[in-house]
Amino acid sequence: MSVTIELPPEIEANLAARAQEQGISVGEYVKHLIGEPSAAKTTRPLTPAERAAAWIEGSRNLPDTPATADDSRETIYSSRG
User: Domain coordinates of the chain in residue numbers?
Assistant: First the structure.
C-alpha cells in the first residue's frame, strides 16, 4: 500500500533528522513509527530489565539539563540586597 501525506516543512525536517540518526530512510523511519503501537499490543509484557533498557534508549537524545536547581533562600532573594 502507498500513502502520501503532505507535512509542514518543520515536521519533515524533524523526521529526516531522526531517520538520519537511526541510519535509515525517512520512509523506513515512518513505517517504524506507525508500526510501533500495533506491535506493542501483540507482544508479551517487558521484563524490568527490558523496560529499563527501553527507557535508556528513549532518553538517549534528550537535552542535558542540570541535575538540580539552586533554589536556596540566598539565591531566590539575592536581588533584594
Answer: 1-44
